[in-house]
Amino acid sequence: MTGEPMVAAIVPAFRSEAWLAAAIDSVLAQTRVPDEVIVVDDGSPDGVGRVCARYAGRIVYARRPNAGPGAARNFGIRLSSARYLAFLDADDSWDPTKVERQLAFMEARPELVASCTGLRRVDEAGAGQDEADRPAGPGDAEHTLDLQTLLAGNPISTLTVMVRREALEEAGLFDEDPDLVAVEDYDLWLRLAAHGPIGRLDECLASYRVHGASLSGARRFAAGVEKVLAKAEARLRPDAGRAEAIRRHRIDLARNLAWELGEHGTRREAIPASLRALSLSPFSWASWRLLAKALLAPSRARAGA
Fold first, then answer.
1. Secondary structure (3-state) at 277
2. Measured between alpha carbons, how far is 71 from 37 in angstroms, rounded to an integer?
């Protein structure tokens, strides 16, 4: 192809030898194949390089020291010159028409800074079901997500995103702070949404592979989202509507963590989390029920928690 590359697929890979080939195959099988396919080996100790060697001439393979998915995506972005950038983690996959459908959507809506789609969640065997993963709102197959909506929660999955390079350069790339691993994407969506709307196609055009999550991961995720919200507050100095959206998100975040710890953790872990939820919403029966659940949680630590 001559001229400016239109679409690049950026695939960070770490400990993903088992799934990487399926991810790359899903990119190369697109009805509109990306002009650049860039796989960034994030210092993986397994055979990511061996897998990529099978695709020599069809993908760009780059290896860098391990620094997390945000840093790996940024490395790939800098290697690319495409007008649109799409992200896919190495254990996930795209449906064949994803790039074609999303590119047409973006080209028809020049006001959009980025777009996302629905997805399906699958287990390690590939079984699962479609999910729209969008907040309550219009039932249209195409709609937009604004900043206030995103401050109240993150309905966007990274493997479904296509972003305009000019908007990304204006908003800034992924934050490489280690404390934001697993939530660096949400931080970027908030910064992008401050520059314009993010479009939404409710078609399920990607598959997200679900792996087991640990309680330490749940706590880290909650702490990371809290840091993202604090960053947004400092940057935006939100008005009343946006401040209320952030408050609701903090309540949901605290309740989700309290429920998780009450269900799978110990009393020592669950009680402080439920008290945090109660302090944010003291007149809510849901918060009081979480405290009751925490008081009934096991008092001894679970092995491997």
1. helix
2. 17
Q: How many CA atoms lie within 13 A of 178 on its CB side?
A: 2
What backbone torsions phi and psi does residue 168 show, to the nearest 5 degrees?
-65, -40
Partners of 207 in beta bridges = 93, 120
Phi/psi for 57 (5° steps) reads: 90, -15
Per-residue pLDDT at 303 exceeds 50: no
| Closest CA relative to residue 229, chosen from 196, 189, 192, 187 | 187
159 CB neighbour count, 10 Å cutoff: 25
Rg (CA), the chain: 20
Write out the two tokens for 31.
């009805």
Backbone angles phi, psi at 32, to 5 degrees: -130, 90
Instruction: With beta carbons less than 8 A apart as the criterion, state whether 249 and 154 touch.
Output: no
> Could you report the per-residue pLDDT of 89-144, keeping only the tens digit for each?
999 999 999 999 999 999 999 999 999 999 999 877 655 555 654 443 444 577 89
| Residues sharing a CB contact under 8 Å with residue 118, sequence separation 6 or more, in sequence order | 130, 131, 132, 133, 134, 160, 201, 202, 203, 204, 205
Q: For residue 280, what are its two tokens?
A: 């944010």
Question: Could you give the CA distance from residue 117 to residue 163 in angstroms, rounded to a whole number?
Answer: 12
- Interstrand relation of 36-42 and 7-13 (parallel, antiparallel or unpaired): parallel
- Token readout for 227 is 């840091």
Phi–psi pair at 166, nearest 5 degrees: -60, -35
pTM: 0.89
Encode 131-177 in three state secondary structure: ECCCCCCCCCCEEEECHHHHHCCCCCCHHHCEEEHHHHHHHCCCCCC
Closest among 250, 269, 264, 183 to 220, alpha carbons compared? 183
User: H or E stretch including 270?
Assistant: helix 267-280
